Amino acid sequence: VQLPLPKHINTTRVLYAIDPKKDVDGFHPVNVGKLMIGEPDYLPCTPHGIQQLLIRSGVKIEGAEVVIVGRSNIVGKPIANILLQKKEGANATVTVCHTRSRDISFHTKRADILIVAAGKPKAITADMVKEGVVVIDVGVNRIGKTAEGKAILVGDVDFDAVKEKAKAITPVPGGVGPMTITMLMLNTVRAAKLAAGLA
After folding, report:
1. What is the pLDDT of residues 104-127, one digit of tens each?
2. From the CA atom positions of the chain, what is the Rg in Å?
3. Residue 90 and residue 63 in contact, taking contact as beta carbons nearer than 8 Å
4. Assigned domain for 147 exists
5. Domain of 83: which CATH number?
6. Which tens digit of pLDDT belongs to each residue from 55-74?
7. Do the Cβ atoms of 27 and 43 come closer than 8 Å?
8. Burial class (CB in 10 A: 0-12, 13-18, 19+), 54
9. Where are the beta strands (DSSP E) in the chain?
10. pLDDT confidence bin for 199, thresholds 50/70/90
11. Phi/psi of residue 153, each to 5°?
């Protein structure tokens, strides 16, 4: 099942219909609950990809101020839970901002690591971040077409402006997306091993 689903489809009913053991996306309520208590069978693909991107890039997560802009069940909430865990590659201090948050820039300016999944093109500007921040831009927004008819894609972060202040920043496209696919493959292999009694 590819989320988000169209508005006329009840996402909850669809997710409940999936066998949690086969839920390689990690969205079934059973798997969400297991993530919350720190005992997941499968980590959600995009959040896990973000965590691995940070770890493998040498970014120190433990003790870091992590600010997440966006509270979706696909990215915002699960990455907050993953980075809060008492585990290696986690132990961060996490703040989650959303559409009802007041003065988002107050929070984003404190971030050592800023993860943005807001669904708004170029919502985060250079004046909203501090020098040396690590920025993970999860957003993919179509803002028009080229003369050749190809879609113009931008993230939720004003990449060209923010890259001047950031220690590291992911591009859109080509940043988080490939990590999501990699984690989906990892979960698929894990599901096969669990089904075969090998894990």
Report:
1. 999 999 999 999 999 999 999 999
2. 17
3. no
4. yes
5. 3.40.50.720
6. 999 999 999 999 999 999 99
7. no
8. buried
9. 65-69, 93-97, 113-116, 134-137, 141-145, 151-154, 168-169
10. confident
11. -110, 135
Q: What angle do CA 100, 92, 107 make, to 5 degrees?
A: 35
Q: How far apart, in whole angstroms, are the C-alpha atoms of residue 195 and residue 26?
A: 16
Would residue 171 count as lying in a domain?
Answer: yes
**Looking at the 3D structure of the chain, how many domains does it have?**
1
Phi, psi of 148 (to 5 degrees): -85, 0
Residue at 196 is within a domain: no
Q: Render 109-148 in DSSP notation, one character per residue.
A: TT-SEEEE--SSTT-B-GGGS-TT-EEEE---EEEEE-TT
CB 140 within 8 A of CB 155: yes
The size of the chain, in residues, is 199
Amino acid at 103: D
Whole-model pTM?
0.93
Within a domain: residue 82?
yes
Which domain does 105 fall in, by range? 44-177
Both tokens of 46, joined, read 């995009």
Cα separation, 167 vs 61, whole angstroms: 14
Tokens of 154: 């931008």
